[in-house]
Amino acid sequence: MIEVLWLLLPVAAAxxxxxxxxxxxxxxxxxxxxTNPVYFRGLNHLLNEEPDKxxxxxxxxLEVDSDTVETHLALGNLFRKRGEVERxxxxxxxxxxxxxxxxxxxxxxLLELGQDYMRAGLYDRAxxxxxxxxxxxxxxxxALRNLITIYQQERDWEACLKTAAELEKxxxxxxxxxxxHYYCELAxxxxxxxxxxxxxxxxxxxxxxxxxxVRANHLMAKFAADQGDTAGALQLLRTAVDQEPEYLPEVxxxxxxxxxxxxxxxxxxxxxxxxxxxxPNRGTELYLADLIRQQEGDAAxxxxxxxxxxxxxxxxxxxxxxxxxxxxxxxxxxxLLHSVRNHLHRLVAERVNYQCSKCGFQAKxxxxxxxxxxxxxxxxxxxxxxxxx
Length: 389
Hints:
The chain is mainly alpha-helical. The protein is built from 19 helices and 3 strands. The longest helix is centred in the first third of the chain and has 25 residues, at about 1-25.
């Protein structure tokens, strides 16, 4: 409540100033000392912590002219931030209907109304306003950014590509990463329709837009595996790892499955050992331990994990080591180990595994686009063992 009151105080001050100016212009010296009683009524609502009534009073006082446009815009913005989108829409619509606005004031009001419509989910109306701003060369960058947000929400990836190109031209700043993801989305849509050739073409365009697009290589690997090209899929997956080591945990299961499908366990073990050395504590040690267990038995796998954990602490590795120890029938204190294992599983299940590097949004599953700040490729898997600050 206190925050709302502080937000309204500037509005009250502006309304009081406006009332005083109006009073001074149209009255004689004696009458000029009188003050608009509506203003005091608004202040009374503020002091009584009745912000909604105070807002209504101040809006009632304001007439739209060159002196009060900014106050109207501030009020509308306040309504939208408080979630009162209908009130914001009515205020901005009333503002736009006034013929006395300058071109700049009208453009700002159109931008605010478009954002009101976006907040209300009225994307078609918002799109029309942002298109009007773009065509009128007013607030073009903000209009284009908002259009991209709308098209992403509607999953209109062709429109996203077109608008991103316009934004690049307007600002001079590359949006190659975003465009590569739009092509990936188009590839997925084509794949769902059974248009494999079109899907491959879209993925090539994704890599042409941004050569470091790990998602495009990952999708190409999936398509290759589906067509029986295991060798090609494995090469693409290894390329994806080299591009972005943080995504190793996302592609590692497919790499292991591919080599096992070929029956090439020797090459798989060599690759896992190399990845454990190059990219520690990303889960590769677990797959290597499983392979050692398959080839040499539980004791060898336990020895390997114990040595790895001693050099590179790993929560997931510790859990797997406890599981291996629990499977040993000659081990004492088996109940204690089972209890420790269960607690460790619970801790890992409750853990947030992914975090956005741009806004800090946390998630338990992988997202290519951050649900919070809408950034692409900004969500990465957190280290399996984080140091306490």
